[in-house]
Amino acid sequence: MAKTLKKPKYDALTFAYSKKEAGKMIPNTTFTAGGEDERFYSIKNKTILPSTGKVASILSDKIAKAILESQLTNDETMIGWGKNGTEQFIYGELPGGSASDIEKFIINLDEKKIYATNIYSHLLYKVILAYDLLQFVLAGEKATDEQREAYEILAGINYLPTEPFDETSILVDSAEKESFVTLCDSILQTASMFNGYEFDTEIPNKDKDFDIYANKIKYNLLPLVAMHNKVDDMSIDTGEEDEDGNPIYIPEIKPLKVKRKKKGAKSKANSSIPYKDRDYTLMTDEEAEDLPEELKIQRDACIELYERNKEFMDDNDELWECILSFYHGNIWKMGFFGPSASGKTTFVRMMAGALKLPFALVTGNRDTETAQLFGHMTIKDGDMVFVDGPLTQIARYGGIFLFDERNMVNAGVVSATNNLLDDTRMCTIPQTGETIRAHKNFRYCEAFNIGYEGTKEDNLSHISRIDEFHKLAHTDETEAKIVVANSGIELGVAKTMIQVKNNITKEIIEDGDETTQRVDLRSCISWAKKTMDLEGNALRAALSTILTPLSKEVDTVLSSNNIKNFSATGDPVVDYASNEIRKYFDESVKKKVIKKEYEFEKYEL
């Protein structure tokens, strides 16, 4: 008697895992897995895979690729929930499979069966993602933290492609690495809910025909999954028409939105919305189309900077107060001072990004002239024409202008801005006689360091025209997160680098030369980047990024090739910095730099 072959049963670890490392199939990510130490493993799941003896990699290519492709849709893409009699099911019809042009999936939740044209396809996990998001929406206010997790992470990731990507695409930014990893892990956990479901690639009878299920879809889930895709039409036409002859579409479950107070409405509802989730738009994308190309580029860059970093700012941060003031427009001139790398320029650029305004910058020095602010005459096509300077350009089109290192500039140049900063908001171009009245969205900022070499005494007439001033200084926690966002290094290592920076700075103040020696946030970012380049060797990375700049005027340092060259130099700051770095980043600590924040037990099978 012939044996009846058993149908395979689904097991998340077996079917989701792939020997392909996700980093090798996700091109141009800033956290591409390249070697054994750089692979990313599940934080929650610690099950050992029998095939490899390792913990399941959550960035195996199936789940990672499914999430990356979650925003890609076309006319053939369909994901929905429905009922076939009393049986609930999730249906997926998705292009991009390896076995066929269109892969089809049915997860029958009552029969505990999965029907698929390809049971090993990564596209199955797009359907599982839909199920995960649906559970959150259905739970509503009673949703658990686990149910919220996938939705909130997917909604917060900015770099998922919404059109087909290639090897030049940046798919996941280093600042979103942790979120992306957690989302992969969440989908793996959801997939585990279907463990034991019977797999079937054959349709046993007409009741299991894919077309029958497709015709019984009650809700379209595609808009919920592809929540970042605002271009493609994701509606599903039933093929029927209403009494007026209009096509009837399957009802959609759309992504949830934060309720926002309408501009000008008198309501306290907005006060309960976190600052980072509010809408501060002063210039729409359509209005931005009229900007000169260089201002479009600056606007896009500022928006990207704001979206990437706003999560680091809590509701007590001064940034939000400044954004609110510029948004309402009653305060439109601000001054910022603080030490080098305290974030003055970044702070202003993030304000521009929140308001969706263009940004322009002039960095002052003792040779700065008014033409660098307002513009100059030049020859174009044989004619003399006037070319706007950055300040004039922002005044015309609206945006935020930053006069950086303003107190390095001669008083006569500074005073030339006074008319534009008066309540009239007007200035006259001497070369052409044109009078410019500043755009309603014109905002002015200036930044300066106090007491540094080359700075000038302040012009009180100019100072009185600035509405308010802010002294900026990040907390150690925020600085560490900024280092992580810019380098991809582990948070614990970044915190240690900030602590070392603070200790060295105190030594410079007590026994060093503040005009020639400095270690600041920029130094730590460079140190972290170099550490990543050197595969976690923070001690070696500090030679060129911290110790050599500190010792540039110390003759006893013969070369920057060895940490020992920075000991017993006779310079108290260099000697202290060398000992401090060795204390935190000797050979035993170097291993901690490349180790993940969690540890795995080793098993012998």
Features:
alpha/beta; 6-stranded mixed sheet; disordered N terminus; 3 domains; 17 strands; 5-stranded parallel sheet; 605 residues; Rossmann fold
Strand content: 5-15%
List low-pLDDT spans: 1-5, 30-45, 259-271, 588-605
Helix content: 25-40%
Radius of gyration from CA coordinates: 29 Å
User: What general outline do the C-alpha atoms trace?
Assistant: globular
Question: What would you note in describing this structure?
Answer:
- The relative contact order is 0.07.
- The chain has helices at 12-16, 22-25, 61-68, 124-139, 145-156, 177-191, 210-214, 222-225, 285-288, 293-309, 318-328, 344-355, 370-374, 390-397, 411-415, 418-421, 460-463, 476-487, 491-511, 521-533, 538-550, 572-584, 587-594; strands at residues 78-84, 87-95, 102-108, 113-116, 198-200, 217-220, 237-241, 247-249, 333-337, 359-363, 375-380, 383-388, 399-404, 426-428, 435-437, 442-448, 468-471.
- With 605 residues, it is α/β, with parallel strands linked by helices.
- Mean pLDDT is 79; it is low at 1-5, 30-45, 259-271 and 588-605.
- The chain has three domains: 12-241, no CATH class; 269-471, 3-Layer(aba) Sandwich (Rossmann fold); 476-594.
- The radius of gyration is 29 Å and the shape is globular.
- 36% of the residues lie in helices and 14% in strands.
